[in-house]
């Protein structure tokens, strides 16, 4: 039976449309896979490091951080004016790794690549093809950056001014499952056992964490508010029991000191004193309910 020219044309159009749809679907799946936290983390150097992940788009939808009334630091203001990039408006997601060899960042957002390159050159740096390099705040801090995708930047601060290129390659995926909360921080035990492993204000309270294999802090919704959570993995149940006791004791000591001195506590101290800790096998968990005004105060000036 003869096939009409119209039928052939329709068949070609249907086939072309199906092929286009398949290509679009494949590219969408590829993009989704690229932005999976496990995939991004596999790009960072394989070494003991503090890792921070923050979904800024979700935080903005929830009203965090609030509009800051504090003046911007001079260097940051100059960066905004020179590059046109303001993380409070343009950054949607960021993952960072902090280690002995340097600090590495992968961020997704809206970038004016031409202005970023111009800014690097004006600061005494240079750009070749996609990679830009410039001097940091000290002689041993070299900043390098390049685009991984049109909406994704890789940045490195290291003694190596080519360090950002390390983020273009995939390595092994993380062995442990990653948190799903909008903000999370993982700290390996080797870092906790260093004197500078924790901020000075938290060293007393979390000194017991120095014996943990690794610790995860997360920030996410809880009921009608926000809750900070902690999970520490210990080497044994005995160590987990000791850690739980130390954390509970630190809360008691903070409360006793406040009552003894008849002094009011700051917002952060009050939040810390509201911590609740539990032990299950070798795991120790903690949680702290956080008020919105506390989060606003902590992010003021950012």
As an assembly, this protein is single chain
Q: Which runs of at least 5 residues are low in confidence (pLDDT < 50)?
A: 20-28
**Structural classification:** alpha+beta
Rg (C-alpha, Å): 24 Å
Termini distance?
Answer: 74 Å
Average pLDDT, rounded to a whole number, is 79
Total beta strand runs: 12
β content, as a range? Answer: 25-35%
Strands of the largest sheet, in order across it? 4-5-6-7-3-2-1-8-9-10-12-11
Total helical segments: 11
Characterize the largest beta sheet: strand count, sense, and whether it forms a barrel.
12 strands, antiparallel
Question: Can you characterise this structure?
Answer:
This protein is of the alpha+beta class. It has eleven helices and twelve strands. The chain has a twelve-stranded antiparallel β-sheet with strand order 4-5-6-7-3-2-1-8-9-10-12-11. It is globular and about 65 Å long.
Task: Throw out a few tags for this protein.
11 helices; 12-stranded antiparallel beta sheet; alpha+beta; 27% strand
Which helices and strands occur, and which strands form pairs?
Elements: H1 5-34, H2 37-41, E1 50-55, H3 56-61, H4 74-83, H5 87-90, E2 91-99, E3 102-109, H6 113-122, E4 126-128, E5 131-135, E6 142-149, E7 152-158, E8 183-188, H7 189-192, H8 200-203, E9 214-222, E10 225-233, H9 237-261, H10 267-273, E11 276-280, E12 283-290, H11 292-298
């Amino acid at each position: 039976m003869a096939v009409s020219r119209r039928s052939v044309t329709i068949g070609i159009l249907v086939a072309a449309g199906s092929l286009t749809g398949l290509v679009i679907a494949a590219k969408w799946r590829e993009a989704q896979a690229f932005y999976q936290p496990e995939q991004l983390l596999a790009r960072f150097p394989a070494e003991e490091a503090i890792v921070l992940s923050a979904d800024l788009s979700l935080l903005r939808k929830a009203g965090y951080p609030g509009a800051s009334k504090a003046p911007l630091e001079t260097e940051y203001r100059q960066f905004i004016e020179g590059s046109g990039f303001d993380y409070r408006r343009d950054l949607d997601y960021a993952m960072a790794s902090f280690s002995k060899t340097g600090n590495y960042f992968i961020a997704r957002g809206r970038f004016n690549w031409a202005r970023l390159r111009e800014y690097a050159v004006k600061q005494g740096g240079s750009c070749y093809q996609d990679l830009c390099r410039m001097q940091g705040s000290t002689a041993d801090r070299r900043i390098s950056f390049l685009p991984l995708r049109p909406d994704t930047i890789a940045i490195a601060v290291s003694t190596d001014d080519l360090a950002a290129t390390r983020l273009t390659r995939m390595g092994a995926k993380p062995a442990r499952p990653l948190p799903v909360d909008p903000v999370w921080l993982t700290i390996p035990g080797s870092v906790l056992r260093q004197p500078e492993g924790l901020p000075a204000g938290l060293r007393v309270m979390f000194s017991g964490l120095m014996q943990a294999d690794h610790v995860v802090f997360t920030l996410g919704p809880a009921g009608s508010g926000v809750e900070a959570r902690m999970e520490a993995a210990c080497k044994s149940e005995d160590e987990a029991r000791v850690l739980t006791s130390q954390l509970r004791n630190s809360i008691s000591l903070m409360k006793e000191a406040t009552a003894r001195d008849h002094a009011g506590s700051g917002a952060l101290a009050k939040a810390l004193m509201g911590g609740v800790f539990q032990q299950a096998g070798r795991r120790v968990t903690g949680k702290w309910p956080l008020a919105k005004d506390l989060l606003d105060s902590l992010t003021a000036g950012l």
